[in-house]
Structures are given as C-alpha cells and as structure tokens.
C-alpha cells in the first residue's frame, strides 16, 4: 500500500460525527430560536401579536424579492438588478396612477409585465449573448436606476406634481393602496398573505415537481443537465424572468405602502434580499439556495432588527448585525466541516 498521504475528502453532512452533524443541520435554527426567545423574555412588547404582525409585514417585500434572487441562484446565476427593478416598478406605478390616472386593474398588470420584460432582457444577455450574469445584471441595475428618473426629471411623483407647467392630479387609488396597507379580516396585512402564497407556491414547484429538479440540475452541472436532455437555456431564461417578476411584485407592494413614487426606493432591498438568500444556505445544512431557507432567513433578519430596535440599539448598528448573521450562516455552511 502506498504511504503517500491521500488528499482529505470533504465531510458530507450525512457522515459527519454527532456534534458536528447537529451543528451543521440545526446551528442556524438554534441561533434563530435563541435570539427570538431572548427578545421575547426580555421585552414583553416584542411578543405581542401586533409586533409579530409588524415583523412579518416589514420582511414581506424583502422576502418576495429574495425569493426571486434565489431562483436565479438555483440555476447558477445571480441577479444584481432586483433592487433597481423594484425601484423602477415603484416609479412606473406612480407614473401610471398620478400622471396617466390609470385604474389599479391596469397598473398592476403593466408593472408585472415590466418586471417580466426586465427579466427576459437579463436572460437574453446572459443566455443568448453569453454576457457574465454579474456584468449583465449590474448593467441593468444602472439602466433602471437612470431610466426611472427621466419621466419626472428626478423628482418623486405624488399628487400635485408639476412638470413643465403641467400639474398632475391623479391619485394612488384605494384599491392600489390596499395591496400594501390593507388587512385581511382586519388583522393580517395583505403583503404577508402575498409573501406566504408566493413562498408556498415556489416551494412546491422547486421541491416537489420535475420543473424544480430541472432547475437544480442546471445549477448543479450545466453540461450534465444538457446531456440529460434538459433545455438548459430555456430553464435559465425562465429563472431570470421569475426573478424579474417577483422584483416587480415587491415594487408594487412597496409603492402601495409608501403611496408615492419615491426615487431610489428600491435600492436598500438588494443587499437585504441577497442576505436572506445566503442565510438560507445554512438552514438544515442544505448548502444550496432554497425557498424554505430564504424565507427563514428573511424572518430571522426581521426579528433581529425588530428586537434591536425595541431594545433601543442605534440604527447604525443594523448593517453590522446583518453582516454578523450572514457571516455566521456562511461559517455554518462552509466552515464547520473544515474543523476536523
């Protein structure tokens, strides 16, 4: 037998020793539960029904956009334009409602169609023209950030906007505002319902259907998926279209929540959505982008920030906390198995 040292094989989750296996599978969930219990015990207001609803409402937009970027990550890509897409949708909704006085029944389909076209353009650049995904979607980010400012000459759009001597008197209709502010049965904010429905539908599709297995096969090994007969270009195109549509859906809800076309409104959602998706890697040691993990990641970040706010931590610590949570998730995903 050769005495030459053999390269170490990676430790698979299923073969890891007891303690390491538990850490890998349940470490993030244990941290999640511990943080939640700590806030609930030390701050009675944290565990109130209204605060729980507030947390879920606050993360609904991030969650929806995060689910979109998760789909692009499943096929081995990455969509950097999601935040700008959401911001563009906010301005598009405001233009249609205030400047054109369109009804809600026309505005929502137009906004979703805009997200679909953005996703299709991203997919065409990446899949057809072979532009690297980060470069293509970064370019789209800058295009969307610029184009949303052109119709209003850089101004936010609300009732009474004056451009070139013309006053626009259209309003955000009650039906449209309900999408961001309405409550089902007078208790549950409508954005939470939308987030839950989107998450459940995507989880079923990605984890329980042939389509979902094709998406993961493409992301796992593109050439092997091609040889297996999967139409990989079509699957990748669909992934970017889904990402674009979900980003626009998040933008619609955001527009309905703030009630005006606020320039740059979507910018903060890129990093939060990506953080939720990456934290999801560590949930149950899946070590891949997944719908359940992203959902839990979004809720976890929402609970952390809400708890810190209640405990009067300075606002400028929030990014630091999100960074620490993300680093812990990455450690649990990639680092713990290197400890042996």
Automatic annotation (TrEMBL):
<feature type="transmembrane region" description="Helical">
    <location>
        <begin position="108"/>
        <end position="127"/>
    </location>
</feature>
<feature type="transmembrane region" description="Helical">
    <location>
        <begin position="134"/>
        <end position="151"/>
    </location>
</feature>
<feature type="transmembrane region" description="Helical">
    <location>
        <begin position="291"/>
        <end position="308"/>
    </location>
</feature>
<keyword id="KW-0472">Membrane</keyword>
<dbReference type="InterPro" id="IPR001851">
    <property type="entry name" value="ABC_transp_permease"/>
</dbReference>
<keyword id="KW-0812">Transmembrane</keyword>
<feature type="transmembrane region" description="Helical">
    <location>
        <begin position="265"/>
        <end position="284"/>
    </location>
</feature>
<feature type="transmembrane region" description="Helical">
    <location>
        <begin position="320"/>
        <end position="336"/>
    </location>
</feature>
<protein>
    <submittedName>
        <fullName>ABC transporter permease</fullName>
    </submittedName>
</protein>
<feature type="transmembrane region" description="Helical">
    <location>
        <begin position="22"/>
        <end position="41"/>
    </location>
</feature>
<keyword id="KW-1133">Transmembrane helix</keyword>
<keyword id="KW-1003">Cell membrane</keyword>
<feature type="transmembrane region" description="Helical">
    <location>
        <begin position="82"/>
        <end position="102"/>
    </location>
</feature>
<dbReference type="Pfam" id="PF02653">
    <property type="entry name" value="BPD_transp_2"/>
</dbReference>
<feature type="transmembrane region" description="Helical">
    <location>
        <begin position="53"/>
        <end position="75"/>
    </location>
</feature>
<feature type="transmembrane region" description="Helical">
    <location>
        <begin position="237"/>
        <end position="259"/>
    </location>
</feature>
<feature type="transmembrane region" description="Helical">
    <location>
        <begin position="188"/>
        <end position="206"/>
    </location>
</feature>
